[in-house]
Write a structure and sequence with these properties.
This protein is about 35% helix and about 25% strand. It is of the alpha/beta class. The protein has a single domain, classed as 3-Layer(aba) Sandwich (Rossmann fold), CATH 3.40.50.300. A six-stranded parallel sheet has the order 5-2-6-7-1-8, with helices on both faces. A two-stranded antiparallel sheet has the order 3-4.
Length: about 210
Amino acid sequence: MAKLYFYYAAMNAGKSTALLQSVHNYIENKLSPVWLMPNLENGEDNIKSRLGLMRKAIVFNKNTDLYTYIKLLIKTGPIDCIHIDEAQFLTKQQVFQLTDIVDYIGIPVLCYGLRTDFKGEVFEGSQYLLGLADKLQEIKTICFCGSKATMTLRVDKSGNAIKDGDQVVIGGNELYTSMCRLHHKEHMKLMLDLAAIQANEVMLNDTN
C-alpha cells in the first residue's frame, strides 16, 4: 500500500543527499521514479547535495495542481515513486494533493524538507506534512556543541544571528547554520538584547 513520507531535519543534515540516493536506488532496480522541487527565488532547477551530487528536477510553483500533473505524467509512462525536495515550500493544498496521489493513484510520495524556519516557526508545507504523512522520519545532524541540531539559525556575514526578515531567503552555509534549541535561543536572545541596548541608546541621545 502506497504511503506519504516526510523526512525532515534542520539545515545541512543531508536531506537532498538522502533523496538523490533514493532516486538512484529506484533507477538501479529498473524502476521509474520522478523527482520534483518547488520554484525557488534563485531559479534553481537542480536538486543538489552538499556532497556534490546533483540531478535536474521537474520544477513546480505554488499554483501547480500536483495531483492533476501526476495523472497527466502517468500517460507518458509508469511512475513507481515520487520524490519532492524542499517540501517545506509546499502549500496546504499541495500537501492534500499528495495524499490524493497516494490514496487514489497508489504511488508512494517521499518528501524531504525543513520542519521550521530561522525563527522556529513551522513552514506551511511542513505543518501539513507533519499532520498528514503516514510516516515521519527525522534526518539528524548536530549543533557545534555536539547535541542534536533541531533548529536553523540565519546569520549575517559576521556570523551574528538575524532575528527578523522574510521567512524564505535562499542560501547555504553562508546564511544558515544548524543548532540545538538551547543555542538557537541563546543566539536569538543575544540579538534581542543588543537591539534593546541600541534602542535605549537612541532614546538617551534624543533626550540629550
